[in-house]
Amino acid sequence: MHTIVIVFLAVIALTSLLQAGAAVAAAIAAKKLGRRFDELEDRFERELRPGLARVARVVAAAADVSDQALGHAQRIDGAVAGATERVNDAVDRVARGVQDRVVGSIEKVEDQVERRVRRAARPLARAAAIVEGFRRGVIVWREGARRRPSDAAEPPHVA
Q1: Residues near 143 by Cβ (< 8 Å), separated by ≥ 6?
Q2: Is this model's pTM higher than 0.85 or not?
Q3: Alpha-carbon span 32 to 35, nearest angstrom
Q4: What percent of the chain clears pLDDT 90, i.e. is strictly above it?
Q5: C-alpha span between 52 and 44 (Å, rounded)
Q6: Is 140:158 a contact under the CB 8 Å cutoff?
Q7: What per-residue confidence (pLDDT) applies to 156?
Q8: pLDDT tens, 29-40?
């Protein structure tokens, strides 16, 4: 039994040595990895940081230009809206003025035409009345010529 204990102790010692070797190898690999990481960080600082700083400045400048453009666009929009409103008001006033003048002119023309038609119709109305009088007179005269002597006592009547 004594030999089994020695064999187990030898196996335990060997595994301990292997564990210690693995720990040393891990420490060496970690140190190398740390150095590589430091080199990568230095390279980043040297090569990429200035480029990123320039990109950040360009982005900031673009944001400023965008803000200024937005401000200008808002001012232009306000100016255009105000101008549009003033133009619409002016067009409305002109349209109302033109409409009022046209309507007034049409009414004046209608009145003048009506007066001239009445003036021109007066002599025709008088002539028509005279013709109507002659016509009735002729009717009465014809009836008088056709009358019998007994009808002579009755006064003539107008048809």
Answers
A1: 156
A2: no
A3: 5
A4: 27
A5: 10
A6: yes
A7: 58
A8: 999 999 998 898
The CA-atom distances, in angstroms, between 95 and each of 98, 105, 144 are 5, 15, 71
More confident residue, 149 or 129: 129
Q: How far apart are CA 134 and CA 111, in angstroms?
A: 34
Tokens of 42: 């230095």
The DSSP 8-state label assigned to residue 150 in this structure reads: G
The contacts found for 9-15 with CB under 8 angstroms, 24 or more apart, are none
Helical residues (DSSP H) of the chain, grouped into ranges? 2-43, 49-146
Looking only at Cα atoms, what is the longest distance across the chain? 192
Q: How many CB atoms lie within 10 A of CB 143?
A: 14
Quote the distance between the C-alpha of residue 142 and its chain's center.
85
pLDDT in tens, 27-80: 999 999 999 988 988 888 888 778 888 888 999 998 999 999 999 899 999 998
Residue 158 in 3-state DSSP?
A: coil
Give the C-alpha separation, 74 to 87, whole Å.
20
Return the number of other C-beta atoms located less than 10 Å from residue 98's C-beta.
10
DSSP 156: P
